[in-house]
Amino acid sequence: MAGSTLASPTAEAAAPAPPAVSGRDTWRRFRRHRLAVVSVGVLGFLVLAVVLGGWVWPVAIDEIDFAATLQGPSWAHPLGTDDLGQDLLARMIYGGRISLAVGFAAMIVATVVGVVVGALAGMSRRFLDPFLMWLTDLFLSLPQLPLLLLIIYLFRDQLKQAFGVEGGVFVMIVAVIGGLRWMPVARLVRAQFLSLREKEFVEAARSQGATAWHLVTRHILPNAIGPVIVAATIEVSSAIIAESTLSFLGLGFPPDIPTWGRLLYDAKDHLDVAPHWALFPGAAIFLTVLSINFIGDGLRDALDPRRVL
Question: H helices within the chain, ranges in order?
Fold first, then answer.
């Protein structure tokens, strides 16, 4: 009896953390989702096209040719031209870099803020958790598009003076979109932390004198990172759509910076004579968002420990 009593704390202290899923097992689960595998190829092609396309198709985005206005796809202009005779392929390559950069940068902002807020709320046992969740619910209740427009109107000129025209708009859009998309990540991380902090391996580490920082960084957060990765993929697509919406409303980047949303905005008055002008940037946005969503579904299945290998 005494021996079992003495052995219990030792057994608890030696309780290991749940084994992490290996990369090979994750890939085996992920490739079962065929649409996710295809989406990786589609997204990889789009990223390579916008990153390396400038070397393959070295046409200036502001080269005007009034003799070739509103032309459809041809050998000289594979995606056609706009109302100034500018090559749409070159403009889509340039604009795609900005649209994807905004999406990934805003995702990083939203994920970092959400993880910090969710971790603080999940580890708190007193007043901090209710306050942070009240703040999260407050942000969730705000109408995002009107708030986006208000912030842009208030701070656009100051950021342009501080970072330049293109840099100021980029910082503003990333900060605003990321700053208004962290709430789902925070709620997800908090739920994961509330569940994991009561597990045996966390109690064992706590009984050995582990600090709260050690518990979070070495035991809880690594086991909660799977759902966070899935949520982050969704934030990328949401940020790309939000940037496209702002550009379509004429409130994003300046007219001489052809993001995919800006191309759609410029094409809206010529849909009857030049539908290709809106078709190609719209298809790029559609394929990017759809691919990221399918990849998120595949990652959700691959990182779910309850699924059988």
Answer: 2-13, 23-30, 34-56, 88-123, 128-141, 144-163, 165-179, 183-196, 200-207, 212-215, 221-248, 260-267, 276-302
Planar angle of CA 110, 116, 120, nearest 5 degrees: 145
Q: For 34-73, write each residue's pLDDT tens digit.
A: 888 999 999 999 999 999 988 988 888 888 888 888 888 9
| DSSP state for residue 124 in the 8-state scheme | -
Read off the tokens for 240.
């790309």
Residue ranges per domain, the chain? 25-54+80-303
CA–CA gap between residue 280 and residue 80 (Å, rounded): 10
Q: Which tokens hold the place of 277? A: 């002008």
The yes or no reply on domain 25-54+80-303 and CATH 1.10.3720.10 is yes
Give the pair of three-digit tokens for residue 149: 């427009």
Query: What's the pTM value of the predicted model, to 2 decimals?
Result: 0.78
DSSP state of 66: G
Per-residue model confidence as pLDDT tens digits over 79-92? 989 888 889 999 99
